[in-house]
Amino acid sequence: MKPSFFERFSSGAAAAALILLFAAPAVANSVIYTGSSVIFEGSTTGSYGLLSSRATFTSGTSGTLKLLLENTTSGTSNAPEDLLTSFYFNVLTGTTTGTPAPLGYQSAFGQVYYAVRGGVPDIPVIYTPPLPGGTVVTGTGLSNLQAFNTNDDTWQFKSGFTLGPSPALAFGVGTVGNTNLDPNSFNGNIVGGDDFGIYVGDATSSSLDGRLLVKDSIEFEFDGFSGFSLSQITPNALFGFGSDPTFVISVPEPTALVIATLGIGACGINRVRRRRMAPVGTAVVS
Q1: Nearest CA to 141 among 121, 124, 155?
Q2: Where are the beta strands (DSSP E) in the chain?
Q3: CA triple 212-218-220, angle to 5 deg
Q4: 3-state DSSP call for residue 141?
């Protein structure tokens, strides 16, 4: 596998690595506040071409927050580094300041496939953890992808992170260790490896053959959102592809964060039109 982003730096340069992480070049990235949703979109160039992703937040019932996490890459995932494997975000008591919301892990569901290369369609399955010792049966039903225990291997939710510049990202969901983001990483005994990353298309490469992968998207739900609004989701987020992560998408890029923050504060402006010019991302408020 291609050396990870952070393997280019020594362990003594962790702070500089984090700064460069958020400065990773992106083809397009934006955060859009619509009133009924908050949408983060971003793209970057991977080894096999353009990688893109989307995270959509909406309010659920009884004080819950829903997150639809999607791998929106056009084409087929060809390697582990093409898998969407983590996402970091924050919800504050203010719009850009304050303490994080008391979010808890309510649910995570997605359609798991057994990847088969060689022109054979991938097989939809239902997975019950943990591995080894869990069960995998053929079926088109959604699998419970919450990871709490050793070898669950699915998606862990963690809080208390301090990733990136202010406002730092406090929450994350991930299915790999993300060890290069220590201490903002996940528990490698609970998750880890390439299984359960979000992919697109049908597997065609030997590096994905035999993997249990999630097709297209996962829907998460968190409790503890009662009394909060979608406007309190901070205007910055991070997507991770691969296990280290190999590629990252920062939304928006550092120069665009100021624009995004000003967009949220401009209550007298009904709409700030989103720009598609790279490398600057924007925030749209309505």
Answers
A1: 124
A2: 29-33, 38-46, 49-59, 65-71, 84-89, 104-110, 112-114, 123-128, 135-138, 143-144, 156-158, 171-174, 198-199, 212-215, 217-223, 237-241, 247-251, 283-285
A3: 130
A4: coil
User: Which amino acid, residue 46?
Assistant: G
Q: Are strands 217-223 and 104-110 parallel, antiparallel or unpaired?
A: antiparallel
Whether residue 1 contacts residue 48, with contact meaning beta carbons closer than 8 Å, is answered with no
Dihedral sign from CA coordinates of 142, 143, 148, 153:
negative
pLDDT in tens, 72-105: 999 899 999 999 999 999 999 987 889 999 999 9
**Amino acid type, 279:** P
Tokens (6 digits) for 61: 């019932």
Q: pLDDT of 31-81, one tens digit each? A: 999 999 999 999 998 877 899 999 999 999 999 999 999 999 998 999 999
In this structure, is the dihedral angle defined by the CA atoms of residues 219, 221, 225 and 226, taken in order, positive or negative? positive
Contacts of 201 (CB under 8 A, 6+ apart): 75, 76, 77
- Please tell me the distance from the alpha carbon of residue 42 to that of residue 240, in angstroms, as a whole number: 11
